[in-house]
Amino acid sequence: MLFDRVTIFYGGNGTGKSTLLNLIAQRLGLKRVAPYNSGEMFDMYVDRCRYSMCDDEDGEPMRIPNGSRIITSDDIFDYMLTVRTNNLDIAEQKDDARTEWANLKFGDTVKMRGMQDYEALRLQVMARKKSVSRRQFIRNTAGDEVKLNSNGETALAYFRKQLKNDTLYCLDEPENSMSPAMQLELVKNLEKMAHYCGCQFIIATHSPFLLALEGARIYDLDSTPAETKHWWELENTKIYYEFFKKHSGLFEKEN
Description:
This protein is α/β, with parallel strands linked by helices.
């Protein structure tokens, strides 16, 4: 099996595309956040898996880039839950900061009896500064919530934040929770990272939008044995095509 700048494993549910992706990530020693529920057979396949790297410009074998990792849908959902929890904590801290601001600004002056009073004195000086508004004081002491939009927009923002230059990524169905419009935005980002930022992607997906990633090598796991195909030759995209072709007259009426 050969890998290009973008390599995609395509197949229906149960074809093993996610298992294969996780096997590769485990064999390459990629970082992961969410644990993978592997078994004895999985570990045996990892042990038997072999790979070789291409040579660099000097003829030396290339290495797995630092920071390379696998990103799963669990990682993204965990990120959303963590952000929501942190936002709730910050909201509670802001309530406390509002009360603290009033006490520090209009209450008795803090007396410096020792280092234990330093933080309270520092906050009082901040609260009484004319240049620091109540809103700024609360923001400085409690922090700001992370803006959360829809799940799809948050997932897209997650990828934009996490993907770094010159890194290898295994992505397990990254389109989960994304609308078609968000998936197209993700495609643009992945193409930019692959063609201009030195990234390499191995992706498990059945999204027609991701399957159409420019220059992707696609392995059809529905075939026996698995074989490479163009995205427009795959069953999933053919089903979409036939559906919209059947109803094309409806779209023409709107125009």
